[in-house]
Write the structure tokens for this entry.
Amino acid sequence: MKKFHAAVEKFCGGVSYISMVALLFAMFVLVIDIILHLCTKNIRILGNREMVELSMVVMMFLYMAVTQFQKGHVRVDMFVNKFGPRGSNIVFGIVEGVTTVLCAMLCFKSFSQTGTYIQSALGTSVLHIPFWPFMIIMGVGFALFTLALLITTIEFFMKAAHPDAPEETA
């Protein structure tokens, strides 16, 4: 399990670099657009909003799994921690399990919606960028996030079964 966790986390970390490139692209488009607007008063980058919105899809969905592995998602555990190590791990495992199932359904739906977007040729209004590649990116992001959730769900239940086991540091 430890090797599989490490391999998936390393793969998700590699994929997250695409997310970082999308962030840099969005920042570059916005900065250049603002500079052009301030210097010329008339020139704007055509479709700047569309480019930034689509890059946000790439940013968010390709980084969710990394955030899960880094324990960066918000979790309100004020009451759950009062259950002790075993009880809190069981509750967190159940919550992660339900979240895993929901994300698996979203992943399936993202990929199945891709066909609809291809057939209907939906895209952005100004630049006519098709939406379907971003639906695939969304599906891949949900697939990686679902895998990360599944791993953390299993780890919570393993900690609940063996609450005295030493905590592993990565």
About this structure: The CA atoms of residues 95 and 151 lie 13 Å apart. Residues 2-40 form the longest helix (39 residues).
